[in-house]
Amino acid sequence: MDLGLKGQSVLITGGSQGIGLATARAFAAESCSLHLAARTKIDLQAARDSIVADFGVEVTI
């Protein structure tokens, strides 16, 4: 689905798992740059690595 969001920046809290991670992956599929925040750094790093590998978008944590 193309929502016309390519190149937009998105901030997602709780982005390391669950609904936050699913939301991050949905925005990554739209070619958005992501800024993820969560309580656990190691989970954020795993989420970032997975999203970058699958979608090739910029992800900061």
Description:
By secondary structure, the chain is of the alpha/beta class. It has one domain. It has a 3-stranded parallel sheet, covered by helices on one side. Helix 2 links the parallel strand 2 and strand 3. It is globular and about 30 Å long. The model has no long low-confidence stretch (mean pLDDT 95).
Shape, per Cα inertia axes: globular
SSE order in H/E notation? EHEHE
Strand arrangement within the widest β-sheet reads 1-2-3
- The DSSP helix count reads 2
User: Which residue ranges are poorly predicted, with pLDDT under 50 across at least 5 consecutive positions?
Assistant: none
Largest sheet: 3 strands, parallel
Percent helix range: 40-55%
Mean pLDDT metric: 95
Distance between the termini: 26 Å
Q: Percent of residues in beta strands?
A: 15-25%
Q: How many domains would you count in the coordinates?
A: 1
Radius of gyration: 10 Å
SS content category: alpha/beta
Give the beta-strand count. Answer: 3
